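*Target chain*
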Amino acid sequence: MLFEKAVARSFSVVDRALRRSFPADYHKRCMYAAFGMQKLLSDFGHEASIQGGDAVAFMASRSGQQAGMQGFANAPEGHAHYWVVAAGRLVDIGPHYLPQDSSFPAADVPLICWDLAGALPPFLRYRVFEDFGPLTALITTEEIHERMEAFIEQCRSKAKNLVGQPKLPTWLLTSLETVERSAAQSDVWAKGALRFASMPGVEKSLPF
């Protein structure tokens, strides 16, 4: 299966599985999302490694009057965030969920499938603390291990029964060109991200 098609199918399945398994806080379950994406991408023929660390993304209010970087960082133990890398792409559903806990009414954030052949842009920052590789073992309590196994099985079952290519809730952020294209179509987040990236000295203001 072509990689971007596999990513889209995996995003759709993992999102639905998260919402069903953790209805109260599915948007905070990045470890489950990373394991689900890893297993599905592997099933679709694309080896994926889980990484852990810090991640922040540009956020813009729906009105366009407020903006800033928000995300996951400085965990007291473990890692603040988990995502996957596959086929030279950084793949992450997490930033798409950031508006739910934003300090202001935030515009939709795209799903991340960034081509790592180019440097990360100012509006998307990741700091890797650990690369767990494609064969990731979950070292935790028996309860969490069983919950993870059940979640992965649910993802695989949903993927097996998925008919046709799913319609995603938003666009895939794969490169600067996709941001420019979305901005031209009046996407609030994309327009704000381009303005943010063009600000003088923006690189010095970034957390990492």
The two ends are 35 Å apart (CA to CA). The longest strand covers residues 48-60.
